[in-house]
Amino acid sequence: MAKISRNSLQWQTAVNTFTSIMIAGLIAVSTSAYAIYSQTFDIDIPKIELILYHSLAVGLLLFFALLFSIRTYVELSGPLENLSLITSTLPLLSSKKYDEAKATFQHISNASEYHEINHLQYASFQLANLLEKLDADMAERSRSLSTKNIELEAERDFAKNLVDTAQLIILTVDNQFKITLFNHHAEDIMGLNEVDLIGDNAARMFPSGNWTEAKSLFIELLAGNMPIAQQEAELIDAMGNIKQVSWLHSPIAIGNDTNAVLCVGLDMTEKKAADKRVIWMAEHDPLTDLCNRRKFTEEFEKSLRTAIRYNHKNTLLFLDLDQFKDINDTSGHQAGDELLQLVANTLIRVTRFTDLVARLGGDEFAILLPESDASGAAILAKKIIKELEQIQLKYGQVQHKVSTSIGIVNYPLHDASIHELMGFADLAMYKAKADGKGTYHTFSVEDNTQAQLQTRVYWKHEIESALQQSNFVLHFQPILDIKSAKVKHYEVLIRMRNPDNGELTMPGKFIEIAEQAGLINRIDHYVMQRAINKLAELQKIGMDITFSINLSGAIADDPLLIPMLKQFIKRSGVRPEGLIFEITETAAVSNLQQAKKMMVAIKSLGCQFALDDFGVGFSSFSYIRELPVDIIKIDGIFIKDLDKNADDQLFVKALIDVAKGMGKKTTAEFVENADILDLLKEFGVDHAQGYHVGRPRPESDYAKEWGLSTEELEEEFLQVN
Fold this sequence. Notes:
By secondary structure, the protein is α/β, with parallel strands linked by helices.
């Protein structure tokens, strides 16, 4: 039997039972003693027997009572011991000693008897399991909550860092138009601390006019009338500087209600300034900062329309420097460039603010004089000639002077277009040169008639004769694949050969006359046929090359173009993917829809298309989205000085980025040295063309490269002629 503690319930039960028996025995003994004592002096044997019988009965009762008490004690001692164990074990649960408590309860449950104590034991055991499970659940939930808190803190820190480090102006505005959040980048842009702005009115972020618009947008957003709003606005920083910001406003919900607006702004100041710079560069001559030919043409068209509408008298001056080529030849192009800058500055100085001065190219300048008659134009021409004569440029040991010949034409003149007016001014200028240079001449109808006899009739006859006798010859200029450093691409160029002496005439001498005389399409057909036949021949001997063929602007309206091209391709057996057709940007944009239709038709045959002389009309860059061109050829005016001119570099980079964004390949013209080529490679230009890569050469020069024999070339020459 287990040791019984003096403080246990079992011990108390035993003591109480024994005490009860002893008290009962004392009472019985006292009763018997009293009965005996009362009968002492009167001894009656029957009474004594009766007393003895009573005493015996009482003794038996006491004995049986003692036995019952002992049995009761024995029966209760185990359960009471278990109860004692249970009561002594229950405190272990509060100390979370679940395993020790369950081991004790498990020992109690092994008893053979089953009492109510066992119910208590079982309940205690279940309680221990439940408390252990609850404790484990609480621990797991605590760990989970701790993990969640860590994750939430990390997400909060990440979101805050993201907001603060984002190169965007981020703020929130409540329904009272108070600023409730302001990120670090916004602080940098504004030059103010978050503390200075939190709680301040959002109107502080906008000039008055822009705030009126912003406030109206905020009201609509908070009311749920619009999901998002865009705004172009100015922003005034702490120093008073104005920044250009593109805003995106959207409502955000705090709780169940939309009571704030999230404002995300992008600082567009530098980009807008760069865009303006790029546009300015596209419209101006990089050397002299005067308007270029493209911008001049646009302004000339506006001036002519205005003059016709309001019956105004305007004047055009066309200037060409005398013997400028000699300056370049004797002192170099740098001297020539300096002289051109001096001339440009002089022209700006002597003209009115309302006059438009432009450099058309080379040593050619033009001036538009609004509200000017012939006498006013003559006065200005004399002043220009006099002022330019004062220029003296010493370069090395050579002293250069400047003189110019000026052609003047007043407009409107009958129904003459700007191109005709430019032609008239050009004729008048040549008349001034013929009169002795350093003078001016005003155009008259008689000048035009004489010029026609001397130029147009002559060149028209020469063009027709060249077409009939096949006196047009093809030259091929290599185009370098910059990435692979290989040449597999050639531009096809045309020259007119003099049948008498074999001299070649450059296209600049006859193309314009061909266009005016309606012969340009025949020249296009001639070049296409010769080039396609040659390419087909080279493809048959295994040459993997491509030809770029130039098309005139007028060809877009030629109904014979597509049928003839199909016929040339079919007869020659050429693979059309080797053919690239080029058209100038000016020609394409001037007849956009027809040009687009022509390009689509040609590309449907499997050929490619390139847009030539691109960049001069950058202001019309959006047209490129409508034209299905594959290659953009950057105008040489931006390439020839690329290694020395930072503005040209900026402009070319912008062109390349936009072209790449539209999925177009790029070709740079006028690549004259290795430094320019290195820059183009750095910028990501695909192809390079220019004298550094290779000059235009006749087919005979490529015999070895193309695997053609001398006999084949001679046979072909005889067939052509």
